[in-house]
Amino acid sequence: MISIAVTGGAACGKSAFCKRFEGFVSGDGCRIFSSDEIVAELLETPEIVSAIQDIPDAAPLVSKGRVEKRSLRKLVFENSGFRENLESILHPRVLDRLQVLTGRLRSERVVVLIEVPLLYEVEFPVSRDVDLVVAASPKTQNDRLTRLRGLDPDLARRILSSQLPIEEKIERGGLVVWNDGSEAVFNNQIRHLADRCQPYLNE
């Protein structure tokens, strides 16, 4: 198993990278672990909903046993204390899910892409072989958040300011994919990385 932690800034294309990489690798040679998808699943479970209700200021986020995710996201970027409490609930469970997956695949010829948006911000304790940063300019990030995803400009600003500067992430990463241009250029970078992994998968 080769494990690659995939991180980067908001709206830089981390999920798109993972899906396209998987498509470029032959057979079943790639597995994707998305932290965001696991968090979305956890937020649907009664255990997590109950734990969130117990966080100060969080009770209005829950209605009829469900978390209002848009309001949750807004509060996460407005209240650092709430964010820390929420992370203390979610992150250990995300890590448990990851360890189950990597434990099962450890002896297989496979590339595991571990998508962790806040890998460096929270120093998420992911065991991996290399870090890959999907990056774009702050201007492009802001445009994608507001124009393409329809976020309020103030919320977009809060999201970007809560993360490390993209330049620092690039410095820390072992591999970088620059996603600030055309789809063709983005795809060519991904295909190149997939081709480099293929000999390992074919052994």
Using DSSP, what is the number of strands? Answer: 7
The arrangement of helices and strands along the chain is EHEHHEEHHEEHHHEH
Give the distance, in angstroms, between the N- and C-terminal Cα atoms.
Answer: 12 Å
* SS class: alpha/beta
Count the helices. How many? 9
Name the CATH homologous superfamily. P-loop containing nucleotide triphosphate hydrolases
The helix fraction, in percent, is: 40-55%
Q: How many domain regions?
A: 1
Low-confidence stretches: none
Mean pLDDT across all amino acids: 95
Gist?
With 203 residues, the chain is of the alpha/beta class. It has 9 helices and 7 strands.
What does this structure look like?
It contains 9 helices and 7 strands. It is α/β, with parallel strands linked by helices and 203 residues long. The protein has a single domain (2-202), classed as P-loop containing nucleotide triphosphate hydrolases (Rossmann fold). The strands form 2 sheets. A 5-stranded parallel β-sheet has the order 2-5-1-6-7, with helices on both faces. A two-stranded antiparallel ribbon has the order 3-4.
